[in-house]
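REVIEWER CHECKLIST
Item 1: Sequence provided? yes
Item 2: Single chain? yes
Item 3: Sequence as submitted:
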Amino acid sequence: MYNRKLCCKVPVVGPEGPQGPQGEQGATGAGAQDNGLLFFENLGKSEDKEPAGTYTLNYDAARTTIDGIAKYIDGIATDSSIVLSSVPSGDYWIEIYAHCDAEAGNAGTDNFITIDLVQQNPGTPNSNNPLDIDTRSVSKGGQAHISFGPAAYRLGSSLPNPTGRVDRNATYRLQVTTGRPYFLSEIKLIIKVRPYV
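Item 4: Structure as written out by the authors:
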């Protein structure tokens, strides 16, 4: 059935009316993720591998400026400290990753590499130390590309239960422990900070 009156009507749009009153302020959103990509100096040389042991790595500002995102690094300190105090107030969670290229000096059962963030100001109460990122192993041979993590922690200074979290006032250094001689290059640390919702 065909209705000629409905089919032929064209709607008429009138002029725009006055603007209504301002509405109520909505809830604060989750916010955006913030990332840092930090490069560090090599450990040893390809022809002269560093003996097994624990090493605190030095930040490579020039490489980070070119290829990275210089966040969460204390630009004033000469000790390459990782600082999280620039994160705004509130509760957040952080993901930490690391990467390096590794050449083992010899084979064996102790051919592991562990990467952690170790707290530099142990007077900061209730902050996890160290921040374990990961452990990997590489046998003797050519260069291997290794990823570490992710490790996740809650960040905030107002949390009721401090176990397993990170205080924003704590400072950290990147540390590597090796079980055999290694040459490590392309060392980078990735930090992702997201609001805790």
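Item 5: Key structural point noted by reviewer: DSSP finds two helices and ten strands in the chain.
Item 6: Recommendation: ____
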